[in-house]
């Protein structure tokens, strides 16, 4: 699997981000599985709020972001939960992408919540991926009660760390899977054409 490249996108802008730490663990597991990896830290990208009237090439680092995602064999999206959904920095980043970046691509999902299990954020990310005709890994990683899930940058529970690492292994394992036929959502997603 040395030719597999896994790219993770961190939707958290916090300095002490549990999402970023978890994605780093995902990528460590992917590397152990033989993949090359990249972490896209959205703090390092200039991405104005999406405007459909503005060309991607004129929107800060949007074209660079899209190129990195196009070159990936598998993508892992990670986000904190804000108001029951995924974070706006990730939403903005993904709005600059379309079928060229996601169609037929394997995508893993990770969500982090300060409270209960972050089901809705995972569902929203999954729906977005299906609208772009990506193949979403059935295994997903969720970190609830994030304030107590890590201590000094390390996972407190081995079982949770293993679940996060499994996402990295699955990203490598399924990077070349034959995707499902396009979804109904994708067929109706005319805005994702020609990004």
Overview of this protein structure:
With 195 residues, the protein is α/β, with parallel strands linked by helices. The protein has a single domain (5-184), classed as Rossmann fold (3-Layer(aba) Sandwich), CATH 3.40.50.360. The chain has helices spanning 18-32, 62-71, 88-95, 99-102, 119-131, 146-149, 158-173, 184-188; strands at 5-10, 36-41, 74-82, 85-86, 106-112, 135-136, 141-143, 150-151, 154-155. The strands form two sheets. Strands 1, 2, 3, 4, 5, 6 and 7 form a seven-stranded mixed beta sheet that branches. The chain has a two-stranded antiparallel sheet with strand order 8-9. Helix 1 packs across helix 7. The longest helix is centred in the C-terminal third of the chain and has 16 residues, at 158-173. It comes from Natronorubrum texcoconense. Belongs to the SsuE family. Isf subfamily. InterPro entries: Flavoprotein-like_sf, FMN_Rdtase-like_dom, NAD(P)H-dep_reductase. This is NAD(P)H-dependent FMN reductase.
Produce the secondary structure layout.
Elements: E1 5-10, H1 18-32, E2 36-41, H2 62-71, E3 74-82, E4 85-86, H3 88-95, H4 99-102, E5 106-112, H5 119-131, E6 135-136, E7 141-143, H6 146-149, E8 150-151, E9 154-155, H7 158-173, H8 184-188
Helix pairs in contact: 1-7
Q: In brief, what are we looking at here?
A:
This protein is α/β, with parallel strands linked by helices.
Essential attributes:
NAD(P)H-dependent FMN reductase, Flavoprotein-like_sf, globular, 9 strands, oxidoreductase activity, single chain, seven-stranded mixed sheet, Rossmann fold, 8 helices, alpha/beta
């Amino acid at each position: 699997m040395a030719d597999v490249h896994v790219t993770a996108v961190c939707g958290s802008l916090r300095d002490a981000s549990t999402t970023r730490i978890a994605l780093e663990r995902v990528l460590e597991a992917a590397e152990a599985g033989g993949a090359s990896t990249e972490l896209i830290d959205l703090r390092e990208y200039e991405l104005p709020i999406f405007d459909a009237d503005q060309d991607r090439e004129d929107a800060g680092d949007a074209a660079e972001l899209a190129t990195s995602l196009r070159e990936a064999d598998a993508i892992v999206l990670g986000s904190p939960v804000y108001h029951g959904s995924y974070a706006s920095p990730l939403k903005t980043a993904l709005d600059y992408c379309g079928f060229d970046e996601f169609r037929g691509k394997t995508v893993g999902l990770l969500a982090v919540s300060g409270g209960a299990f972050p089901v809705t954020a995972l569902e929203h990310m999954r729906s977005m991926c299906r609208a772009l005709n990506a193949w979403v890994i059935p295994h997903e990683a969720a970190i609830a009660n994030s304030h107590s899930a890590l201590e000094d940058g390390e996972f407190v529970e081995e079982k949770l760390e293993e679940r996060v690492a499994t996402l990295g292994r699955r990203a490598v394992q399924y990077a070349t899977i034959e995707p499902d036929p396009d979804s109904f959502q994708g067929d109706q997603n005319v805005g994702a054409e020609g990004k």
